[in-house]
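Hi R.,

Here's the input for the FE2/S2 (inorganic) cluster complex you asked about:
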Amino acid sequence: MKKFKNVGKPVKKFDGVSLAVGAAKFTDDFELKDALHLSILYSPYAHAEIEDIDVSEALAVDGVVDVLTYQNVPQKLFTTAGQGYPEPSPYDSRILDRKVRFVGDRVAVVVAESKRIAEEAKKKIKVKYRVLEPIFDPERAMDDDAPMIPDPEAHMIIPAKYDPKRNLAAELDISYGDLEAGFEEADFIEEHTYWTHYGAHAMLEPHAAAAYIDEMGRLVVISTTQVPFHARRILSMVLDIPLRKIRVIKPHLGGGFGGKQEIILEPLVALVTWRHQRPSKIVLSREEVFVSTRVRRSARLRLKTGVKKDGTITALEMDVLLNGGAYGTHGLTVLSNVGSKSLPMLNKVPAMRFFARSVYTNLPVAGAYRGYGATQAYFAINQQIDMIARKLGIDVLDYWKRIHIREGETSKIFELIGEGREGTPQLITSEHLDEAIDLGAKEIGWYDKRGKRIEVEKDRVRGVGMAVAMQGSGIPLIDMAAARMKMNDDGSFNLYVGATDIGTGSDTILAQIAAEVLQIPAEMIIVHSSDTDFTPFDTGAYASSTTYVSGGAVKKTAEKVKEQILKVASEMLNAPMDSLFLEDGRVIQRDTGKSVTFSEIALRSLYMENQFQIEATESYVGEISPPPFIAQFAEVEVDRKTGFVRVIKFVSAVDCGQPINPRLVEGQVEGAVMNGITWALTERYIFNQQGRMVNNNFGEYKIFTPPDMPEIVTIIVDSYEETGPFGAKSVAEVGINGPAPAIANAIYDAVGVRLFDLPFTPEKVYKALKTTDN
Amino acid sequence: MEEFRWYYPNSIEEAVGLLELQGVVPHGGGTGIIRGKLDRYKGLISLEGLGLDYIKEVDGVVEIGATATYHDVIEFCGAVCGECILVKSLSRAASTPLRNRITIGGSVAYFPIWSDLMGPLIALDATVSILGKNEGEYPVQELARNRSLKSHSLIKSLKFKRFNGFTYYYRAARTHFDYGSFNITMLASFDDGVFSDVRFVLVGSKAKFQRLAEIENGLIGRAPSDVDVPGLIGELYNSIEFHNTRIGSAEYTKSVALVEIERAIYASFKAMEGEK
Amino acid sequence: MTGKFRINGREYSIEFDPRDTLLTVLRENGFTEVKEGCSEGTCGACAVLLDGKVVNSCMVFAATAIGKEIITSRGLGDQNNPHPIQEAFAEVGAVQCGFCTPGFVISTFYLLQRNPDPTEDEIKKALDGNLCRCTGYVKIIEGVKLAAERMKNEKV
Ligand SMILES: Cc1cc2nc3c(=O)[nH]c(=O)nc-3n(C[C@H](O)[C@H](O)[C@H](O)COP(=O)(O)OP(=O)(O)OC[C@H]3O[C@@H](n4cnc5c(N)ncnc54)[C@H](O)[C@@H]3O)c2cc1C
Ligand code: FES
Ligand code: FES
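And here is the predicted structure with FE2/S2 (inorganic) cluster in place:
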């Protein structure tokens, strides 16, 4: 363990008290005088063309200012994906379109003096639809007779396989080694198909956006965005407003998890405010969030492995079909990540093929979601490995230790799959998965419980299961983050970062990194983040990039600042720079012990001699993306008579490098774990025959409240990533990958039924139990 | 939008008078009304000024005023008896903040399929006092069956005899805070190793609520060792039906219900053994 | 209609639509610490104390709160003088995005008023009406425990 002053300490999240009190402002909390309110009319059909739309009656309602339809808004195609430029997502969306592609697609937007008026007037819009045949089954999406869902002009702006006519949003076919020979050589073939389902991010704060014109006539947009800089770029492009006239502010954000990495509402408020030169605002209802924002895409994964009696996996083939819903946003990149974040785990397999497609259907739109494809892949892989280990008659823990990737090793997959392009070769620079497995096993009581089928009460049987996973830390050679820092009179610093704190505490850990460099308490750093006018660029909060990439930028910046501080101090102390060191807000001369305080340094440089502002701006681009590793363990209790499954205990042991802030690290894992558990058990999109989601509220889309919680334990494994800022890797996503497969494996351990299809509703478990019993 | 107004009567007579207005209904906790279509109403009558938030027990008869909340009942009955069926069932209803709002009167009037109140009330043979158009005292079952009794009427209170025997409550739900899919209430008294009184209610089936006479008759007068439990459950097979519920298909829900009914019976056996 | 409300110890005369919920009235009058997460009684982000009892303000007609004492999270403490519950939540990491937190603070306050020394199980049950998607609740429960301990010691 290295010694640090700030890093590794549970520094209190800077905005914690403000948030707990309720003073911190979220998008909907800003007072906008005389704002126009927007209300969206949604399509009742899954697939239809608007033949005629009559808004005259709505416009006639007192207080209605405008009604937007495809006829009076810019018709540029763009992608709602908040990704870097050029976006690896298809340009297949318009602000409002003549065609609607799912129940919940936008038809019109009423703009009125109040929300009530807008909602009332909305009912007076008359739309004539020409209903088209919908496609709900992704397996059918590419059939010859399937209707084409996307826009005929839809296109990618990067070279990638994209075939909108066939409803193909993305395709990858990657392989290495001799697959056939591998399967040939195997003693047995293990082949199974797995299904994962849609999921809602269910962040507590609904999506919202507001806009106003500032005193200089510029357009200011406040929104619930994980990607303010991408939002600004895309707004400018779609609305033809010069980028320099747009400012995007991310206020406090009530959770994102990927669901706010999309440019959905910003174009509406921006357009209305620009057109009417008045403030405007929209806040979605919970129902709208479920249906009309974004979801986790569902997947069908067929996994074929050739295995020798000694346990060697000789070949592996993964065949994936993703259902991205009505638009292609994030299709290619999630698809890439299904392979690139999972297959390297099995790097010793000499031959692999990864064939994957993402298709369009007439269901709600999939976007980015914590885990980003890896979650789907690990659901399959972890069950497959559990089954193989059982067949081999060895403990799955020992088996994983034999087959997983190790420090100093690489995987061909890193090179072959990138983000919509080829990947970057990389060596694993830190990996402590064995320790994670051992610590987790101990905590769950693996050896006392595995295979014991302990019946705690009549018909209530317990079992344990586990899963491992890795993720990445940013997108190498793509994600760029910058930071700026300046020194104040009292020796405090303003730190400006484009990085987007969406509730993760990134403002705090970035301050800890800067404070570590300067050897001052973190409170001496005042953080300002995510305002396109005032903070430098950052790609945003996604791809587990903030700690590693933005943290890298902050560290570089602080180091530059440190150099300037030392320079001034060396003048003041009349000593060479290399004889000086920093401690507790002072610069000290090693030999004499003479020192100057930061404040004295600041005062001198600001007011007295050789005046200049001590400040720096630096950027960082990761050359590699060191994966965090995790081992997760579930203990479940299955009611053999009814199929009800209860998670009793859930343990995660994570190698995320040096934790910058252990409390926040644990918080990330705990949140991801809970999200993963409910996705496995109780969350569920239920559609009717017409493709309408029928359970679009928290009353029916079930996530846990505190009494549902199992015991949750998080262990941070001792680790240090040399390339990361003070040894850190990412942690935000990796924890969501294990719960579903660990629970599946635990259910098998308890009652001997294998569940290939999420979610594990009690009825599914019950039916599986019935078939095994007989 | 139509005019919409609030009435704040200070006496029961005044409130009853207001019930004659078209489109004006009593407001209990508002948790049901607020989520419905408000256009239906011209006005709401606040019941807060009527002093109906009382709970009392006289000679073993508990009387609960219409505006007492779930929370009030849990507090009052919990203090008297830890095994009270209403404490068990209402503690599982909705959530802490909602239980502070949901009223007994509103819940009897509204009687949603997920009600955690009605099963116990039916088992307790509770009666409901109604004022207004259909003034009178009705068995709660009758009110549950005949919804028209509610119109232009005010539920004033309900009464039941305190039950001191074995109580059992089961609620099928996906998570802790969830609308229940069905629930089971069992009350039983034992006398010298045999069942002297059994009341068994299922809420949430196609019938919405039903007393399971098969079980009651199969147990009363018998000792556990004389009861053919599988036989009893088998008998039930044809008398309970479900729609699809939140926990699953109709067929599945029925299987779970049968399992849980069986478990309730075994729990009562165990309790009887414990008493000995 | 117009009504007088006592909010966080001050009296306000507020005009509102008779169909408005207490949540709407509070938010429109600047009490934005009361959050709207669902508007159907299922998330608890809108929790306030109404005459000392925790309620979902989205499930309460404003017209029924006239003349009553309403306390929001900001009524318990502010940034520079946080309530021990708010302080404890921030300290243990119970606050991630914080959107759910004012609601949890209110539910916790209600619990600790009635039960100063709750067990873990009692804590969980008392928070059964509050959703949080960020924390997995682990640190929230820790925060409640810490707050309970500090509040007990304060009283002694
Ligand atoms: C999210 C949520 C979850 C819930 N979960 C559960 C649960 O798990 N279990 C459970 O039991 N309940 C549950 N409920 C409560 C239930 O659904 C109803 O909302 C509640 O029972 C209605 O009671 P109230 O006092 O709020 O009635 P109100 O909303 O005030 O009124 C409901 C109806 O009853 C009428 N009414 C009210 N009082 C009287 C009276 N004194 N005389 C005549 N008519 C009257 C009203 O005019 C109206 O028609 C839940 C509610 C919500 C919002
Ligand atoms: S907004 Fe009131 S409970 Fe969710
Ligand atoms: S901290 Fe984000 S919802 Fe609770």
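One thing worth noting: Residues 77 and 84 of chain B are 7 Å apart (CA to CA).

Cheers,
M.
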